[in-house]
Amino acid sequence: MYLGLDLGTSGVKALLIDGSQSVLGSANGHLDVSRPHPGWSEQDPANWIRATEEAIAALRSAHPVEFAAVRGIGLSGQMHGATLLDASDAVLRPCILWNDTRSHAEAARLDADPRFRAITGNIVFPGFTAPKLAWVKANEPAIFSRVAKVLLPKDFLRLWLTGEHISEMSDSAGTAWLDVAARRWSADLLAATDLGEEHMPALVEGTAVGGTLRGALASAWGLSSDVVVAGGAGDNAASACGMGTVGQGHAFVSLGTSGVLFAATDSYLPNPESAVHTFCHALPATWHQMGVILSATDCLNWLSGVTGKSAADLTGSLGETLKAPTNVTFLPYLSGERTPHNDAAIRGAFVGLGHESGPAVMTQAVLEGVAFALADNLAALKAAGTTLERVTAIGGGSRSRLWLKAIATALRMPVDLPADGDFGAAFGAARLGLIAATGADPLPVCTAPATAETIEPDAGLEAAYADAYGRFRALYPAIRAVTT
């Protein structure tokens, strides 16, 4: 048996699979986020351990015999968080999370240093780890002076599980300290934030062994003394392992609170100017590119709150047949935008409203606006050298076939829907645990799920969608000029 642990922002998920990768069960432990000041987002790492223990206790209770046969553990986690430890591994302050924006000035300063984009292949975003440490140095110097190790959230769990300071390539690529092409820490970038390699964990590949379960935990959980912990992955790379998105040309589109267009690549293809993330993948000699829009289903949820109608009612009012875009265009920048604009200040807009523009017209424009924002991501990936022929849809928004039809038509490519199953980050982490424990070839393990349905683009609406996308593209600079 193999265990996947996914440390998310709102909880820890533990998932158990057998040697044939059948999911036997899963359980969760709850987490809350502290926001002591506007723009701040923190968690106490002690609560990650508490939530993990809750999830494992529930899983052991439901599957005691199977759990006792665990031989490998894989880790996945929310990326970018700054977990600061002193020389005795005591936590120095709450972890500053991925969605914390306090270090925007420090991020801009680091990004102005050309070495960062040249070595990491990425813009230095405020959510990344390096600017957070620059903020701590400037605002909490007494704490900064005591920092002995900086760990990412999942790797703090690893420290608890194994006693080792170890990370892996996919998660570390989001720190702004990794030489992403060479897959190693950059001494120059660390020095730019007054740190050195001694402050960093050792690095392994996500499929490699990254420690062995401590004897005390193995005994408490009724496990053998040789359970290995895999390197693991950041959450999106782990989800890609679960979805089988690990080879050149494989991609998924995630329609969640935010939207992600994720493409695996077999070479390093940076394009920081378009705000594409270029990170190491969890598999050796593999990278991935990722376009991110900050509001996807959040846009529909926002319209639901404004209209007093449920998201299902709003989309249901449109029927089941895709229609040509109206003259109303929606810009989905409710929280700013990441790819391709890297603009935290821009905000959303409806343009072209008339007396006849009721909730149905506005809903249609919201679905189209998100689809066009994903088309922007596709263009950014293409500019970085990645060509896609189809994508697989995941996330809550993928339950709307009409929305997927709009996305397929905007992207001009088929959108596949996977068969029912749990293919998320915890499943991907469990797969990595299996690979590390058995030495299996990663590619036959990280296969794609069966396709239940394929949504084809509407060829009859291709010209109308192209015209509407042109309007969408022209509106960002116009809106930005009068709102920022």
In summary, what is this structure?
The protein is α/β, with parallel strands linked by helices and 484 residues long.
Structure characterization notes:
The chain has 484 residues and is an alpha/beta fold. The chain is 37% helix and 20% strand. The protein contains 18 helices and 24 strands. Strands 1, 2, 3, 5, 13, 14 and 15 form a 7-stranded mixed beta sheet that branches. Helix 11 crosses helix 16 and helix 12 packs antiparallel against helix 14 (359-383). The longest helix has 25 residues, at 359-383. The chain is globular.
Please give the structural blueprint.
Elements: E1 2-7, E2 11-17, E3 23-30, E4 42-43, H1 45-62, H2 64-67, E5 72-77, E6 83-85, E7 95-96, H3 104-111, H4 114-120, H5 129-139, H6 141-144, E8 149-151, H7 153-162, E9 166-168, H8 169-172, E10 178-179, E11 184-185, H9 187-192, E12 202-204, E13 209-212, H10 215-220, E14 228-230, E15 233-234, H11 235-243, E16 251-255, E17 259-265, E18 277-280, E19 287-293, H12 297-307, H13 311-316, E20 329-331, E21 349-351, H14 359-383, E22 391-394, H15 401-411, E23 415-418, H16 425-438, H17 442-445, E24 451-455, H18 462-483
Parallel strand pairs: 1-5, 5-14, 5-15, 9-12, 16-22, 22-23
Antiparallel strand pairs: 1-2, 2-3, 4-7, 6-8, 10-11, 13-14, 16-17, 17-19, 18-19, 20-21, 23-24
